[in-house]
Amino acid sequence: QVQLVESGGGLVQPGGSLRLSCTASTSISPSNGMAWYRQAPGKQREFIAITVWGGSTNYASSVKGRFTISRDNAQNTVFLEMNSLKPEDTAVYYCNLKKFGTEYWGQGTQVTVSP
């Protein structure tokens, strides 16, 4: 099975930054959509950011201007640079890959924003 492995989560103070990464066990290309989602306890999983063909990106309004999604297709990896973090950003962050009509999910990495 295809596996996605997230890393880079941790504890950070408000206003701080973290860089998440997600590496896939399969090759990726610009035609494969790679995205980040997050889920806080007791809340719905929400879309955060996506990068698709040609590096086109889209962001949830809650993170636009603070988070940046990027990818390295040669390394089968997608990144999420998170800046100006807020306590509301605390959640488990999940990587998502859509390839040939099939979606794959990582197991998540915890991000906690607290003084």
Would you mind describing this structure in some detail?
- By secondary structure, this protein is mainly beta.
- 0% of the residues lie in helices and 52% in strands.
- The strands form 2 sheets. Strands 2, 4, 5, 6, 9, 10 and 11 form a 7-stranded mixed β-sheet that branches. It has a 4-stranded antiparallel β-sheet with strand order 1-3-8-7, with no helix packed on it.
- A hairpin with a 6-residue loop joins strand 4 and strand 5.
- The chain is globular, with a radius of gyration of 13 Å.
- The mean pLDDT is 95.
Concise summary:
Helix content is 0%, strand content 52%.
Give keywords:
115 residues, mainly beta, 7-stranded mixed sheet, 52% strand
Supply the helix-strand structural class. mainly beta
Global geometry: globular
Largest sheet properties: 7 strands, mixed
- The low-confidence parts are none
Would you list the SSEs in sequence order as H and E? EEEEEEEEEEE
N→C terminal distance: 39 Å
Strand content: over 45%
Count of beta strands? 11
Please count the helical segments.
Answer: 0
Query: What integer value in Å does the Rg equal?
Result: 13 Å
Mean pLDDT: 95
What share of residues is helical? under 10%
Topology readout:
Layout: E1 4-7, E2 10-12, E3 18-24, E4 33-39, E5 46-51, E6 57-59, E7 67-72, E8 77-82, E9 91-99, E10 102-105, E11 109-113
Parallel strand pairs: 2-11
Antiparallel strand pairs: 1-3, 3-8, 4-5, 4-9, 5-6, 7-8, 9-10, 9-11
